[in-house]
Design brief:
Largest sheet of chain A: 3 strands, antiparallel
Order of helices and strands of chain A: HHEEEHEEEEEE
Structural class of chain B: mainly alpha
Largest interface: A-B, 13 and 19 residues
Strand content of chain A: 15-25%
CATH architecture of the largest domain in chain B: Up-down Bundle
Keywords (chain B): Electron transport, Heme, Iron, Membrane, Metal-binding, Respiratory chain, Transmembrane, Transmembrane helix, Transport
Order of helices and strands of chain B: HHEHHHHHHHEHHHHHHH
Distance between the termini of chain A: 60 Å
CATH class of the largest domain in chain B: Mainly Alpha
Cofactor (chain B): heme; heme b
CATH architecture of the largest domain in chain A: 3-layer Sandwich
Shape of chain B: globular
CATH topology of the largest domain in chain A: Rieske Iron-sulfur Protein
Radius of gyration of chain B: 24 Å
Low-confidence stretches of chain B: 408-422
Structural class of chain A: alpha+beta
Number of helices of chain A: 3
CATH topology of the largest domain in chain B: Cytochrome Bc1 Complex, Chain C
Family (chain B): Belongs to the cytochrome b family.
Mean pLDDT of chain A: 89
Number of strands of chain B: 2
Largest sheet of chain B: 2 strands, antiparallel
Low-confidence stretches of chain A: 1-7
Function (chain B): Component of the ubiquinol-cytochrome c reductase complex (complex III or cytochrome b-c1 complex), which is a respiratory chain that generates an electrochemical potential coupled to ATP synthesis.
Mean pLDDT of chain B: 93
CATH superfamily of the largest domain in chain A: Rieske [2Fe-2S] iron-sulphur domain
Number of strands of chain A: 9
Main location (chain B): membrane
Helix content of chain B: 55-70%
Oligomer: heterodimer
Strand order of the largest sheet of chain B: 1-2
Strand order of the largest sheet of chain A: 1-9-8
Number of domains of chain A: 2
């Protein structure tokens, strides 16, 4: 880019650099400001966020039974554990666990265990909700995709998954009702 | 051209490595850096770049809107309302897209007007001009189908009226209409295919724009004097002179665009399109979007179905042969005193048609439309061919440099004599 005002080139150079820099910065800020609404539009919309909580009635669930409910498009395992299952979960020494967590830290009220039913390995839904399902070596859940075994507290005990089944945020709204999310 | 690595002079070693194997940087430097451009552009020459930017805006907003839109008759309207209310910045994307269509037509109409006033369609730029007309046609098809997508009352009845245009053709008419509809009325199959085509056509436009630019860079740009540059004294490198000038125009364009989007987003739309489509009730006053009104007025000016349709299509088809209708070797209207007045009158006729197209089909608008439509065609088919023989043009300047710098052909002839501005 040959400047026609060559006589003042040496004097004008720092000023030209400054102008270039200011112009480029201004353009960068502008591009960022324009890009933001586009990126934000891909985040969950307000109607999606409005569906972010799920109410569950626990009354019909018998001891030893489990149900699956949907929360944010994901399966939530709600299990009414038997006293033996609770005892098994609490008896496991923390040193044996891959992702150490006490059973008490994962529940709010006995006998209810509420976890997100998505294997922490690669996102499959583990088996174990139905009485006829395989429940793995530890009586909790078994993920058929890559063979992860979860115990009766939903903790990873064996297989490739790195973490325990996650506990969703929830609260008891009465003795027999919870709200997830 | 020889086979082998390109002899690149890009200083940066990484860019040079790429450039030797794929000389895109050399090409950009040649076509947009040092590209010799007439030194006397006025601001009318901004509008090609503005149209390019507008096309990019339309595709970007359109792709993001398509992530939220549902092309089904039972869900389309609600999905658009969801974009307006629930999707983050959905209102912004939609208003930019909807008003972007209007901005696109404003920009392209000015671009076409400039080409007609300064004779940019004449040899050797005929193909460049014709590719531009193709882009204009594709734009009209894309805009029409886009307007159908929200599935409001205007969408539905606009689609019904425009597709029915094709029923005017004898023998094949009904068959074409059924083909467009995918049924026996405008319905879900129509909406579905219009969405698919509305997504496709902009990329076809990108392709034709590329050819348009290729053709432009062979002949070089026309200029307000309509005479060819005779040497380096008549041109400037595109960068930084016209990148800067285009940037300035772009800022003005963005201001106008922003005023529309943020302060009058529905000014150019129709309230009826916020009523969901109802195949049983036609709105009392149905008109197309403003940018189609001149052609709609021509359609309505003819008291015959087939005649109206033919004249309407003819009003655009005539642009294809404009380079051969206007046989005058003088390009710029600055040097054609009679043609200049005739063309400015044509411009008035265009606006009169635009105005009448938005009015009800009753007197006096019908008669006014007929007069304006008659002049619209007379300009192309009678006045221009006759003036090519009869008109005596003003003397052309010797060169661009002499005309704009006043002095000799050398740049820096700053001892500018007051020169006739032409």
């Amino acid at each position: 880019m040959a400047a026609s005002g060559g006589a003042t080139a040496s004097e004008g150079t720092p000023r030209r650099d400054f102008l270039n820099l200011v112009t480029a910065s201004f353009a960068a800020v502008g591009v960022g400001a324009v890009a933001w609404p586009f990126i934000a539009s891909m985040q969950p919309a307000r109607d999606v966020l409005a569906l972010a909580s799920t109410d569950v009635d626990l009354a019909p669930i018998a001891a030893g039974q489990a149900i699956t409910v949907m929360w944010r498009g994901k399966p939530i395992f709600v299990r009414s554990r038997t006293p033996q299952e609770i005892e098994a979960a609490r008896a496991a020494p923390l040193s044996e666990l891959k992702d150490p967590a006490t059973d008490q830290s994962r529940i709010q009220r006995d006998p209810w265990l509420i976890v997100i039913g998505i294997c922490t390995h690669l996102g499959c839904v583990p088996l174990g909700q139905k009485p006829t399902d395989p429940r793995g070596d530890y009586g909790g859940w078994f993920c058929p995709c890559h063979g992860s075994h979860y115990d009766t507290s939903g903790r990873i005990r064996k297989g490739p998954a790195p973490l325990n089944l996650a506990v969703p945020p929830y609260a008891f709204t009465s003795d027999t009702k919870i709200r997830i999310g | 051209m020889s086979i082998g690595l390109h002899n690149s002079d890009i200083p940066n070693p990484v860019l040079r490595w790429i450039d030797q194997r794929m000389p895109v940087f050399t090409m950009m430097q040649k076509e947009y850096g040092s590209f010799p451009t007439p030194r006397n552009f006025n601001y009318f020459w901004n509008f090609g770049a503005l149209a390019m930017v507008n096309l990019v805006i339309m595709i970007a907003t359109g792709v993001f809107l398509a992530m939220h839109y549902t092309p089904h008759t039972s869900m389309a309207f609600d999905s658009v309302e969801r974009i307006m209310r629930d999707v983050n910045y959905g209102w912004l994307l939609r208003y930019v897209h909807a008003n972007g269509a209007s901005m696109f037509f404003i920009v392209v109409y000015v671009h076409i007007w400039r080409g007609m006033y300064y004779g940019s369609y004449k040899a050797p730029r005929e193909l460049l001009w014709m590719l531009g007309v193709v882009i204009f046609l594709l734009m009209m098809a894309t805009a029409f189908m886009g307007y159908v997508l929200p599935w409001g009352q205007m969408s539905f009845w606009g689609a019904t009226v425009i597709t029915n245009l094709f029923s005017a053709f004898p023998v094949v008419g009904e068959w074409i209409v059924q083909l467009l509809w995918g049924g026996f009325s405008v319905d879900n199959p129509t909406l579905n295919r219009f969405f698919a085509l509305h997504y496709l056509l902009p990329f076809v436009i990108v392709g034709v724009v590329f050819l348009h630019v290729v053709a432009l860079h062979i002949t070089g740009s026309n200029n307000p004097l309509g005479i060819e540059p005779k040497g380096p004294q008549d041109t400037l490198p595109f960068h930084p002179y016209y990148t800067a000038k285009d940037s300035f125009g772009l800022v003005i364009y963005f201001i106008v665009f922003a005023v529309l989007v943020f302060f009058a987003p529905n000014y150019l739309g129709h309230p009826d399109n916020y009523i969901p489509a109802n195949p049983l009730v036609t709105p009392a006053h149905i008109v197309p979007e403003w940018y189609f009104l001149p052609f709609y007025a021509i359609l309505r000016a003819v008291p015959d179905k087939l005649g109206g349709v033919l004249l309407m299509f003819g009003s655009i088809a005539v642009l294809f042969v404009l380079p051969w209708l206007d046989g005058s070797p003088v390009r710029s209207m600055r040097f054609r005193p009679i043609a200049r007045i005739a063309f400015l009158l044509w411009t008035v006729a265009f606006f009169v048609l635009l105005y009448c197209g938005g009015k009800p089909a009753e007197e006096p608008y019908v008669t006014i439309s007929r007069i304006a439509a008659a002049y619209y065609f007379a300009y192309f088919l009678v006045i221009l061919p006759l003036l090519a023989r009869l008109e005596k043009p003003l003397p052309l300047p010797e060169s661009i440099a002499r005309a704009v710098l006043g002095g000799g052909p050398l740049p820096g002839g700053a001892a500018a004599k007051p020169m006739e501005k032409a």
